[in-house]
Amino acid sequence: MFKTLSFFVLLILIGFAASFVSDEQGLVTIDWLGYKIEGTVGIFIGFVLGLIIIFYMLFRLVLAIKNAPERIVTANQGWKRQRGYKALTQGMIAVAAGDASEAKRLSLKAEKLLSEPSLTMLLSAQAAQLSGDEKAAGRFFKAMTEEPETRYLGLSGQLRQALEDGDHSNALQLAEEASNLNPKTDTVSSTLFELQIKDKDWKSAGETVRKLEKTKIIKPATSRRHQAILLYLESLNDSEEGKIEKATQKAKKAFTLCPDFTPNIIQYAELLHRSGKRRKAVAVIEESWVINPHPNLVNKLKELVFGAGTEELMRTVEKLSNYNSNHMESHLAIASSAISARMLKEAREHIEAIPEFEKSARACRYMAEIAEVDSSDSNIAKNWLKKAAAADPDPAWICRECKDISENWVPTCSSCEKFDALIWDTPPRITRIVFPEDKKPEESHFFEEGDTMETSKEKTRHNKNN
C-alpha cells in the first residue's frame, strides 16, 4: 500500500516538473570544439536524463557480466542444497520405516550433496544402527560429539549404545555429560537418575532430583518425596557406618520433606532413641500417626517402651491411637494390645467399631483369638478364620506399576526396577476355583477381582510360561 502510494506521488511530482519546464521560456546554447548546439530547456533536460539512463543500463550490464560466474556457482550450490535436504528428509523417513538399505543410500547422497556434516552424521549413524553396524554408528556418534551443534545428539547416541551393551559406568558418565549440556531434556536426565539409583549413589541422585524440579520435569511434591527417600537411604548408610549424628540429621530433614514416609519415620525414631531422646522419638511417631497410621509405627512404639507391663503398654497404644481415633489401624492397634492384656471386651469393641467394608483378614483373626479365649464353642473361632480367608488381604507393600508384592519397603521394585513404586495398599483378592473331580480341567485358574474366565486363563498361561 505504501509503495503504491509513493509511486503515484512520484508520478505527480514528475508531471508538475514537466509542466513547469514546458511553461518556462528559455534557450540553452552549447558551444564546444567548433560545434554549436541550441535548444530549449526542456529538450536539454530530456537529453541529460537520456544520457543518465543509457550510462546506468551500461553499468548494470557490465556488473551482470562480472557477477555471472558467482551467480552461477551460487545457483548450483542452492540446487545441490535443495536436493541434499530432500535426500536428508527421505532418509529420515526411511529410518522411521525401518528400510536400512534405502536409509544408507540416502545418507550417502545427502552427505555428498550437503557440505554440512553436522546434518548428515545423525542420519548416517541411524542408518548404520538400522543395518546392524554398531561400530560404524559409534564412529558417527563420536564424530558428532566433536561438533558443538551436534555434541548433545552424539552423546545421546553413545549413551543408548552403552545402555544396550550393559556398560553401566560408561553410560553413567555419558548421561552426566549430556545432562549438563542440556539439563532441560527429560529423557537424558531421567536416564541419569535411574543409573545413579542403580549405582546406589543416593547423594548424586538427590542433586539430579533437584535439577529435575528446577527444570520443571517433575513436580515439587514428587521432588520432595524423592529427596526424602534418598536422604533416608543416606541415613541408613551413615548409621551402618556409626555416623549417628549425620544419620539423624538426614532422617530429620527427610521427615520434614515427607512426614508420611513410614520407613524414614521408623529410622528417625530409632536414631533418636539411640541418642537417648526416647520422648522425642515417641513424639515423632505420634505426629506421623495423625497423617498416616501404619502398623509398623505401633511395633516401633512398643520397642521404644520395651520392658513396660501390659497395662502400661496398653495406655501407650491408646494414647497413640487417640491422635487418629477413627482410623482402622487405631482400632486394630488397641485390639491387639487389649488381647495381649486379656482385655477381651475392649478388644471386641474396637474391632466391632471398624466399618464392615473395612474389616480385613487381620481383624477377623483377632476376633478368632478372642473367641478361642472367651468362648467354649470352638466353632465360633473357626467361623472367624473362615471369614478371614474370605476377607480382603492385609495391606502390604505393592508396586503401583507391576503389582508385585514385597515383604518390606525397598527403594526400587524387585520386579520392574521402578524407583519409589511401592505403596502400602490392600493386594487384590485371589480366589482358587475348586472343581469336582469328574469336571476338573487340565489347569487350575486363579481369579482376581474383575477377572473373567478368559482373562484368568490368559494369566495362568502367562504365569506358566514365566
Give a description of the structure.
With 466 residues, this protein is mainly α. Among the domains are: 27-59, no CATH class; 82-132, no CATH class; 395-425; 430-465, no CATH class. The chain is built from 20 helices and seven strands. It has helices spanning 2-23, 41-97, 100-113, 117-130, 134-145, 151-165, 168-181, 186-198, 202-214, 220-240, 244-257, 262-274, 278-291, 295-304, 310-321, 328-340, 344-352, 361-374, 378-390, 453-465; strands at residues 27-32, 35-40, 396-399, 405-406, 422-425, 430-432, 446-448. The chain has a three-stranded antiparallel beta sheet, with no helix packed on it. A hairpin with a 5-residue loop joins strand 3 and strand 4 (405-406). Helix 6 packs antiparallel against helix 7 (168-181) and helix 11 packs antiparallel against helix 12 (262-274). The radius of gyration is 42 Å and the shape is elongated. The chain starts with a helix and ends with a helix. Residues 439-447 and 452-457 have low confidence and may be disordered.
Key features of this structure:
mainly alpha, single chain, two-stranded antiparallel sheet, 20 helices, 466 residues
A few lines on this structure:
This protein has 466 residues and is mainly alpha-helical.
Secondary structure layout:
Layout: H1 2-23, E1 27-32, E2 35-40, H2 41-97, H3 100-113, H4 117-130, H5 134-145, H6 151-165, H7 168-181, H8 186-198, H9 202-214, H10 220-240, H11 244-257, H12 262-274, H13 278-291, H14 295-304, H15 310-321, H16 328-340, H17 344-352, H18 361-374, H19 378-390, E3 396-399, E4 405-406, E5 422-425, E6 430-432, E7 446-448, H20 453-465
Antiparallel strand pairs: 1-2, 3-4, 3-5, 6-7
Helix pairs in contact: 2-3, 2-4, 3-4, 4-5, 5-6, 6-7, 7-8, 8-9, 9-10, 10-11, 10-12, 11-12, 12-13, 12-14, 13-14, 15-16, 16-17, 16-18, 17-18, 18-19
